[in-house]
Specification:
Chains A, B: Pfam families: Acyl-CoA_dh_1, Acyl-CoA_dh_C, Acyl-CoA_dh_M, Acyl-CoA_dh_N. Chains A, B: This is 3-methylmercaptopropionyl-CoA dehydrogenase. Chains A, B: One of its GO terms (molecular function) is oxidoreductase activity, acting on the CH-CH group of donors. The structure is a homodimer. By secondary structure, chain A is of the alpha+beta class. Chain A has a domain of 122 residues. In chain A, helix 1 crosses helix 10 and helix 7 packs antiparallel against helix 9. The two termini of chain A are 43 Å apart.
Chain lengths: 591, 591
C-alpha cells in the first residue's frame, strides 16, 4: 500500500475558492471566530494523525481483524493507542455541541476530516463515526440529565456510542422490530431483545459503550409509529460519573464479513438491560432519522475516502510500472518499456477515478455547506432553502458517492492487474471495505426510493428547485472557453427536468414506477450534480492558473468528465423512460 | 449459501432449440456418434458431481484456503477426494484427443460443464481447467514422444498442468521475461528463473505436475519473438511412466488474495530444472496463445458461473425474505410484510442478473458452436468463417462475460443487504472469486485492445462481417410480435457499424485512439451480441410456449433486456465518439 497523503491543497481550493465557505462563517454568529487559516490548521492536524498513525496500520489491522471470545471483542493492535490519540485531538466531538466540550465545527470542515480518516482506515473511522452520530441524537433529543451524564464523556472520546436498529427479521423494515421496553418503577425501562449488525456494539477501545436502541413500549401502536428510542449503557454510571455495575447487554457473536475486518459488527443481546427513554414515546424513528440523515453524508464520504486512497496507489503504480509501449511520441526509448500511464485505457481508468474523487470531494463539500447554512444561519429563508437542498441531496450523497467510490476502487484494483488482486498492495481491501457503504445505513436502493419517492415525488418536484436554481445561476453566467461544457450541463439539466415530469405524471397511475426507476434516477441526479460542481471548479480554477499552475489540471479533468462520464445520463434516461413495464411482466415463478 | 442446482433445462434449450448444435454434430465425421440425449446425459453426470460434492464444499474451502509450508501446498479438505471423482468421470479430458484417452467432446458441451463447475466452485475448477489448457497446448505443439509420456496421465487427471508465463516485472508485456533455457547434451534444457501468479503451480491433489514454461534460449532475439515454450515436470518420469527423481522446480510462496482462496497461486522457482522444448525455438508465444485463445472463453465462463450461482441464491432470498410493502395489488395481507420480489428495484436487480446469466449462457454456447465448427467441420469455407467469428468473439467472451458476471454478483450481494456482506451466505465470496476473471489470462483492457486493435482494426473491419451477417439473417426474418425488438437490434447494429467506421478512420491519424476507446467498444459489441442471442432465444421460445409454458419467461426477459439494458450502448457510443482527446490533455504530473 502506498503511503497516504491527505489532499490538503485540493480541500482548501474547494472550501475557499469554489464554495467560499469562510464567507458563510463570517456571517454566522456561532462561527464568527473561525477563519480559513484556522480551518487549514485543523485539517492539517487531522491529516498528520491519519498519515502517520492510522493509515500505516490499516493493512495489518485488516489481516488481524477483530477477535471475539466469551463476550469480549479485541480490536487489532494499534487501535487502542490510535483511538486515544484521536480522542485527545478532539476529533470524536469535532462537530459536537461546545456546551459539552465539542469543537462545534461546521460540517464543511468535518467532511474533509472524515474523508481523510476514511481514506486512512474505514474500519477505524467507524468507532468514532458511530459515536458522533449517537452524540448528535442524544444532544437533540435527550433530557438534560442524560446529556449531562453522557455527552461530556462521549464527546471526549472516553466512551463510545452504538446505534442498535436492525433485528434478524427487520432491516429496511424497522416497523417489524420485536425488542421490548418495559417501564420500571424508577423511571427507567427494562430492554429485552436481540439486535444484529451493530457496528462497535462491543470492543476494547474505551471503558464504556452507550447504546442507542430502538424498542417497543407495551402500549406501542403497530408498525413504524410504535418505536421508541432508549439509551442503554454497557456499564451503569455511578454518581461520580465513573462506570459502575455491568448492565445486562452482551455481545453474543461478531459477523465474519467481506471487509471492514477491523470493525466489530456485533449481535447484541439485551436481557432486561436498564435503559432510559430518549425523546417522546413512539417517536424513536424520527429521532433516529435526524441523526441518520446527518450521518448519511458521512457514509457517502466513506466511498469517497476509499476511492481517494485507491487513486493515490493506482497513480503511483501507473507512473512507476513499466509495461508495453505507448504511441511513438510518448516512448521512453532508454527503457525496456513505457510507464503504464502512457496507455489510453490506463488514463481512462485513472481519470475516471480522479473525476469521481475530486468531483465527490466538491459535491460533499457543497452538501456540507448547505448543512452548515441550515444549522448556523440566522436568516430563516436562507436556512429553509439550505434545508431543502440537504433533504434532496442527502440520499444522493450517500448512494452516489458510494456507488462511484466502489467503481473507482474497482478501477484502482484493475490498474494494478494481478497485483491489485493480492492483498499486499491494499487495493483489494479498499474494494472490500468500500462495498459495505453501498449497503448499510439504508441500502442505496432505499436512498433512491427516498430521493424519488419521498423527496422529489413527495414535493411534486418542488424540492428540485433550489438545485436547478444553483445550476441555472452557473450556466447563465458567461465563462469564456466553457461554452460547450455549460451548454452540456444545461442540456443535462433539461433532461433531468423532462424525466422528472414524466415520472411524476406516470406515478399518478402506476404505483410501481417510483421503485422501478429510482436507482437510475438517483444516478441521473448524481451525474448532473457532479457536472455542476466540476464546472464550478473549472471556472474557478481557470482564473487562478497563473498564480497556481497546478489548477490547469482541474480544467482538463472537468472537460474529461463532461465528455466522457456525463454522457452516461443518456442510458439512464432511456432506462427510466421504460418505466415499470419491463419489470412487471414476470410472474413470481417465472424468474 | 443456497443449494446449487445446475440449469439442465435451459442448457438443453440453448443447445438444441436455439443453436441446433446436434445438427452440426450429425454432419461432422468425428462427432457423428454424438446426439442430444447422450449430451444431456453427460451434462447430467457433471451436474450431479457439482451439485452433490463440489458446490456444498465451496464455502468451507474458501474459509480453509490453501496452506503453504516448506515448499508444500495443502488444498482444503475434500479437494483431493473430489478431484479424484472428477478425474474418474473423465472431466479433465472432456474435450481432449481420444487418441490419448480424451472424451473428444465439442466445446458447446464442455462450455455447459464448465459453467456448472465454476458455479459450484471457481477455485476447484482451476486445477482441472489449467490442466485442460496444458493438454491442448501439448497435443497441438508437442513432439510425439512428449505426448506419449504426458498426455495419457494428464487426460486421466492423474497429473495436472500449469502455465508459467508471468514474471514479477513482466505481466502483460511478456517480451521482457528473463527466465533462461540452456541446452543440455541430451537434448533437454536447463530452465532457470522465477515465475509468479502460477495457478496450481504446486498442490497435493495428484502425484505430478507438468509445468509449461515460457523462457528464452541463449540465442533468442529480443522481445516477444524470442520466447520459447518448455515442458518441465515436477518429477522426472521413469521409463515405466511413474514419477521419479524430483526436478529442480519449487514453490517459493503462495499469494494471499482477495478471493479464490482455495486455488494455489504460486511463486515458482526454476533452478536449473530439466525441461523439453515444445514446438519450434522462439515460437513459444504463438503456441501458448493457441491455448490461451481457446481458454479465454473458459475464463469468461467463470464470470458466468459465478453470476448463475449468485442469481439462484438471490432469487431464493427475494422470494422468502419478507420486508416492506409492495403496490396494493401485490400485497400479502395475511403476512407482516411482502416478499422482496414485489419491489421494483429488487426485480430490476434480479432481471439484470437473469438477463446477463441466460444471455451469457447463450452467447458462450454461440461461441462454443463456432469453435466446434472451426475444429470439426470438413468444409473449408465453413471452418474459415467460424474461425473468423471465434477470433472476433473470443476477447468479447472473456471480458464481457466477466464484466457482466461481476456486475451480476455485486447485484446478487446487494439483494441480500447486510446478509450479502457477511460471509455465511456466500454471495460476497462469489464477488471476490469472480473479480479475478476480469484480471487474469489477459486483463479485460487487453482483451479490448485485442478486439479493437488486432481483430477489428487489423482486418480493417472485415472480421465483423460474419457477425453482422448472422444478425442480419435474424432481423430480416419476420417474427410476429418482435417487430420493435428486431428494429432495436437493427439500430444497435447500425450504431456499431457507424462507430467502427469512425474509429478506423481516426486511427489512421491518431495512434492513441484504439487504446482510448477499446473498453467501451468491447462493451458495445458485447451488448449487441447479447441482444442478438436474446432475440434468437425469444423467437425460438415463442413457438414452443404451448408445449413448454416456462419458456414464456424467455420472451419476457428478452423484452426486459432490449428495453432496459441494451440502451447502455448510447452512453458507450458517446464515450467512443469522444476519441482520445479528453484522455491526453493531462501531463503526467497533472494527474
Amino acid at each position: 500500500m502506498a503511503d497516504y497523503r491527505a489532499p490538503r491543497e485540493d480541500m482548501q481550493f474547494v472550501l475557499q475558492d469554489v464554495f467560499q465557505v469562510d464567507q458563510d462563517w463570517a456571517r454566522f454568529s456561532r462561527l464568527a471566530d473561525l477563519d480559513m487559516d484556522t480551518a487549514a490548521a485543523i485539517i492539517d492536524e487531522g491529516a498528520k494523525l491519519a498519515e502517520t498513525l492510522i493509515a500505516p496500520n490499516c493493512r495489518a489491522a485488516d489481516e488481524e481483524g477483530v477477535q471475539f471470545s466469551e463476550g469480549r471483542v479485541t480490536t487489532p493492535s494499534g487501535y487502542r493507542e490510535n483511538f486515544k490519540q484521536l480522542a485527545a485531538g478532539g476529533w470524536v466531538g469535532v462537530t459536537a455541541n461546545p456546551e459539552f466540550g465539542g469543537m462545534g465545527l461546521p460540517k464543511s470542515i468535518s467532511a474533509q476530516y472524515e474523508e481523510i480518516l476514511c481514506a486512512a482506515d474505514i474500519s477505524f473511522s467507524l468507532y468514532s463515526g458511530l459515536t458522533a452520530g449517537a452524540i448528535m441524537t442524544l444532544d437533540q433529543h435527550g433530557s438534560d440529565e442524560l446529556k449531562d451524564i453522557y455527552l461530556p464523556k462521549m464527546i471526549a472520546g472516553e466512551w463510545t456510542g452504538s446505534m442498535c436498529l436492525t433485528e434478524a427479521h427487520a432491516g429496511t423494515d424497522l416497523g417489524m422490530i420485536r425488542t421490548k421496553a418495559v417501564p420500571a418503577d424508577d423511571g427507567s425501562y427494562q430492554i429485552s431483545g436481540t439486535k444484529i449488525f451493530i457496528t462497535g456494539g462491543e470492543h476494547d477501545l474505551v471503558d464504556n459503550i452507550v447504546h442507542l436502541v430502538l424498542a417497543k413500549l407495551p402500549d406501542a401502536p403497530a408498525g413504524s409509529k410504535g418505536i421508541s428510542l432508549f439509551l442503554v449503557p454497557k456499564f451503569l454510571v455511578n454518581e461520580d460519573g465513573s462506570p459502575g455495575e455491568r448492565n445486562q447487554v452482551f455481545c453474543g457473536a461478531i459477523e465474519h464479513k467481506m471487509g471492514i475486518h477491523a470493525s466489530a459488527t456485533c449481535v447484541m443481546n439485551f436481557d432486561g438491560a436498564k435503559g432510559w427513554l430518549i425523546g417522546e414515546p413512539h417517536r424513536g424513528l424520527p429521532a433516529m432519522f435526524t441523526m441518520m440523515n446527518y450521518e448519511r453524508l458521512g457514509v457517502g464520504i466513506q466511498g469517497l475516502g476509499a476511492a481517494a486512497r485507491s487513486y493515490q496507489t493506482a497513480l503511483e503504480y501507473a507512473q512507476d510500472r513499466l509495461q508495453g509501449r505507448g504511441a511513438r511520441d510518448t516512448r521512453a526509448a532508454d527503457k525496456e518499456a513505457d510507464p503504464l500511464i502512457v496507455h489510453g485505457d490506463v488514463r481512462r481508468m485513472l481519470l475516471t477515478m480522479k473525476a469521481f474523487v475530486e468531483g465527490g470531494r466538491a459535491f460533499s463539500t457543497y452538501v456540507g455547506k448547505q448543512l452548515d447554512i441550515s444549522k448556523f444561519s440566522d436568516n430563516d429563508a436562507e436556512r429553509e432553502r439550505a434545508q431543502a437542498l440537504v433533504d434532496l441531496l442527502t440520499p444522493v450523497a450517500k448512494a452516489f458517492l458510494t456507488d462511484t467510490g466502489f467503481e473507482a476502487t474497482v478501477l484502482g484494483q484493475q490498474i494494478l492487474g494481478g497485483h491489485g488482486y493480492v492483498r499486499e498492495w491494499g487495493q483489494e481491501q479498499l474494494v472490500r471495505d468500500c462495498r459495505i457503504a453501498q449497503i448499510y445505513e439504508g441500502t442505496n436502493g432505499i436512498q433512491a426510493l427516498d430521493l424519488l419517492g419521498r423527496k422529489v415525488g413527495g414535493s411534486r418536484g418542488k424540492l428540485l428547485e433550489p438545485l436547478l436554481e444553483d445550476i441555472a445561476a452557473l450556466t447563465a453566467q458567461p465563462a469564456a472557453g466553457f461554452e460547450n461544457e455549460l451548454a452540456r450541463l444545461d442540456e443535462a439539466t433539461k433532461l433531468l427536468e423532462r424525466v422528472t415530469g414524466m415520472v411524476l405524471r406516470q406515478a399518478a397511475e402506476d404505483e410501481n414506477i417510483i421503485n422501478s426507476v429510482a436507482v437510475e434516477y438517483l444516478h441521473l441526479v448524481g451525474y448532473v450534480c457532479f457536472a455542476y460542481v466540476w464546472l464550478r471548479m473549472a471556472i474557478t480554477a481557470e482564473d487562478k492558473i497563473s498564480e497556481r499552475p497546478y489548477l490547469a489540471s482541474k480544467v482538463k479533468t472537468a472537460r474529461f468528465y463532461m465528455a466522457r462520464l456525463l454522457p452516461r445520463i443518456q442510458s439512464l434516461a432511456a432506462a427510466i423512460e421504460d418505466g415499470s413495464q419491463s419489470l412487471y411482466q414476470h410472474e413470481p415463478d417465472e424468474f
